[in-house]
Amino acid sequence: MRHRLLAVLVPLAVLLVGALGVPLGITVAERELQETYVDRLNDAGRFASLAETALSGGRTEALDQELERYHELYGIPGALIATDSAVVLGSEREFDAARGDSDALPTIIQAALAGARSEPSRDVWPWQDSPLVVAEPVGRDSEVVGVVVTISDLDRTRERILTRWAQLAALGLLPLLALVAVAWPVSSWILRPVRKLDTATAGISRGDLTIRVDAGGGPVELRHLAGSFNTMMDAVEHSVQRQRAFVADASHQLRNPLTSLRLVVESLRPHLSGDGGRQAHDVAVDELRAMHRMLNALLASARMESMRTAEPVDLDTLLATRVDRWRALTSVEGQELRVDVTPGLLLLEPPGGLGSILDELISNAMRLSEASVVEVAARPAGPAGFVEVAVRDDGRGIDPSDREQALRRFWRAPKHQNVPGTGLGLAICAELVARAGGELRLEDGLARDDGGSGLAAVVALPVAAEPADAPT
């Protein structure tokens, strides 16, 4: 998150520095070029004044020596051009070579012969190699008798421009570095409460309602947010605790009267006469037993929902403690238990334990499906980083249209209305699996001889990072 904040601030700072630095760099380049142009113009003006005197007196030796000396010292060829564009004084060979580097030279000379002084080009940049041409008329207005032309290589000027640009870039880099140096700890200070909130919400999503956020750091607004978050969680935890306490207390308080009522009703049977009375007595006893099972299921639900955290588990170790008991239970019912598990699977078990969930799923397969085969299978599958543990049977199954409702509390299939049960088992298992970041879904099970298929309860759980201790 801190990197994303810097990714927003740093480009904005770069744009700001660029908005200030680019015009300043252009100004620096123009000033360097202007200074060079003024120097060359002064030199050309001096040569023009000497040329006017030399041409009027017919003595051009001194001017010729000045042009040669100027070329030797500064490497800048200069020449006196007559009105017919011929070189009168200066090194014609070197001037012609320099003339080839400037396409605009003929135009500049013609403008100077017309009495116009040349202006510096504003399109000179360090990555260009065009020379600077300065033409100074000899004479004035209609009395122009020649033109003094200098062709200057701007390599040194370009080097100075690049040097100044490098200095400006270094100066512009300093505030960027200062911004990063300041923004890094400041962003950490600002985002620390946000990271704490994110960690807290992740823990709460796993079922731990006791987590609170430290509201003592960060900006005032985030401290207020942390305080409001803690207040909200206090209210949520209090509400959930009251709900669980109500379920547990109500179940406990109803159990004793219900047990007494059941004993009283059962003791009435010897005093009943007639088939109608005995039949009503049997119905009352069955209803009392169903209510007793419901209270036990509600108590189990309250206990399991109070478990908050998911922990790693070694599936091989877990199955080793339960397979023998499952095999014994299925053999009593005349069923066959098959186990097909990929060895070495480590996964994150839901609160309350994966073993309890598998117990419930196998119990449902034994009681409700009328199956002859119950299979427990496990393999890495589904999304990356998940393990699927499936309990399949070849029984009657559940209609595909009813499978989503089967994961809701108190739902019973019409064909299971007279089978002992509360309709809470699958719903509680699905909620506990979801707390561990997994999913419980119902699919087609093992194939039957009549062409149909039974039911498969598939538990998809995340792979654990490291193995857990063997369960007790």
From TrEMBL:
The chain crosses the membrane at residues 165-186. It catalyses: ATP + protein L-histidine = ADP + protein N-phospho-L-histidine. Gene3D superfamilies: 1.10.287.130, 6.10.340.10, Histidine kinase-like ATPase, C-terminal domain. Keywords: Kinase, Membrane, Phosphoprotein, Transferase, Transmembrane, Transmembrane helix, Two-component regulatory system. SUPFAM superfamilies: ATPase domain of HSP90 chaperone/DNA topoisomerase II/histidine kinase, HAMP domain-like, Homodimeric domain of signal transducing histidine kinase. Pfam families: HAMP (PF00672), HATPase_c (PF02518), HisKA (PF00512). Residues 249-465 form the Histidine kinase domain. GO terms for molecular function: phosphorelay sensor kinase activity. Its main location: membrane. This is histidine kinase.
